[in-house]
Amino acid sequence: MDPLVDGWGRRIESVRISVTDKCNFRCTYCMPAEGLEWLRRDEILTFEEIARLARLLAAMGVSEVRLTGGEPLVRRDLPQLVAMLAEIDGIDDLSLTTNGILLARSAGALVDAGLRRINVSLDSLDHVRFAEITRRDALDQVLEGLAAAEQHPELRPIKVNCVAIKGFTEDEVPALAALARRKPYVVRFIEFMPLDADRTWRADQVLTGAEVRALIEAEHGPLVELPAKASSTARRFGFADGAGEIGFVNPVSEPFCSTCDRIRLTADGQLRTCLFSRREWDVKEALRDGRDDAQIVDFLRYAVRHKELKHRVNEPGFVPASRSMSQIGG
């Protein structure tokens, strides 16, 4: 089957699939304290529907699948879906993004099902500050989840993601950088993006990757840039002595739209061709109205041809995405 290519000539090779909009955290940069109105069960794609779509995408060269949420581990029987996806020819990279609170009890089953990479969100190693930003006293459970993942050598790399917010993250950088040096984790700092449900994001709240890098280098000396795929969202750096890796995901200060190879599927089956899309394509309807595989492939190709050139966050007149991060899928 011909590859999946957008209207700007970019080949699509990665899909991020949200399995639920629900989350057991209420992170200040993502969700209101009272939460959001959750989707009904019948509104969410079934495992069979997700697997069918993944099989069609894999036939068009989409080799990377990442499961997201909300918090994906609140979706019942998630290892069953992982096993279904792991059996699909062409899917070479199957990963999961999680807040880690349920990871300790799930890691073994996920690895046995075929999961091979994991990203864990962790914004602070201090109990009080962790609770401040997540609105949950759950740091110990997250650290237990990371420790459980560490026991499975098949699950590599283990990435720890920190949202970099000015006025908060500066104090967290030393401990998180030290974590990268003493644990087999790649610690990544992700610039705060305008995807919060409260719509309070401001550009002056963004702690840039360059600013975080300067804080790390002030303590540990120059970081050495490491090779990364052209389509990678992160710039990779190692410490000069070789002990540890740091990543910087800089969508605000250093947009990487020109090499974007990603599309996203929301939990309720809407295809988004950009994280900041204002338009969605109803894949759920296509899956449920009797269309055959060839018709769904044509629908996917048509949608992807309309993929945006760039997100325009830094441009005058920028309009935020039509949904918040937890509703889109991280």
DSSP summary, beta strand count: 12
Q: Approximately how much beta-strand content do the residues carry?
A: 15-25%
Main-sheet strand order equals 7-8-9-6-5-4-3-2-1-10-11-12
Instruction: Calculate Rg over CA atoms.
Output: 19 Å
Cα distance spanning the termini: 29 Å
Specify the number of helices.
Answer: 10
- How does the helix and strand content classify structurally? alpha/beta
Largest sheet: 12 strands, mixed
Low-confidence stretches: none
The succession of helices and strands, N to C, reads: EHEHEHEHHEHEHEEEEEEHHH
Average pLDDT over all residues: 94
What is the 3D form? globular
Overall helicity? 25-40%
Furnish the topology, listing elements before pairings.
Layout lengths: L13 E5 L28 H13 L4 E5 L9 H9 L6 E6 L4 H11 L3 E5 L5 H8 L4 H12 L7 E7 L8 H10 L2 E7 L17 H12 L2 E4 L8 E5 L5 E5 L12 E4 L4 E3 L8 E2 H6 L4 H13 L19 H4 L2
Parallel strand pairs: 1-2, 1-10, 2-3, 3-4, 4-5, 5-6, 6-9
Antiparallel strand pairs: 7-8, 8-9, 10-11, 11-12
